[in-house]
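[Automated response] Your request has been received and processed.

Submitted sequence:
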Amino acid sequence: MRDQKALRPRRVPVVADEPLIGSDRFDYADAFEIRVPEADARSAEELARCALEQASSPVRSTVRIAHRHLLRLRLGAGSSPHHLFGWKILTSEPDVIHLEAVSPLLGRAVLVLRRVDPTRAVITTYLFYARPVSARVVWTIAAPLHRRIAPYLLERAVRRPPHGPRTGSRQATQGVHG
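Generated structure:
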């Protein structure tokens, strides 16, 4: 029972000096941390792909609808070596994946998932509003859903056992994409 509780995500303070987001001041950010079993050596990208691409069909559909229609994110072609669930992969290394999507309404949305050590992972969401008034209204609607689904997806990915060869993930040597 204690181990099951340890695998539950918890909201944590956002790291103020995240080098991957640049020097722009963000308008919204939140972070969730989860314990990862020591035997789980999946990369940050593999965890992120598991969370988003292997979620149940209703959850994937809900997230996709929210991304495309509520947040108006301009997403790429599903999943590919350069996209994860439509989000552009800017950096993928064993311990971090940096995803970005842009919205004419919301502005720039950034996800950073880090394996901060072998037993912890943190996902941080950053929003940079292009139209602050409109973006705040939309985010007021979307935020409660985000704050429930993001930790749920993280927990689900960690609870799902690692399996077989790395499918869909790129090698760390590919690093940053432009």
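Summary generated for your ticket: The beta strands are 10-12, 28-35, 83-84, 87-93, 96-103, 107-117, 120-129. The two ends are 45 Å apart (CA to CA).
If you did not submit this request, please reply to this message.
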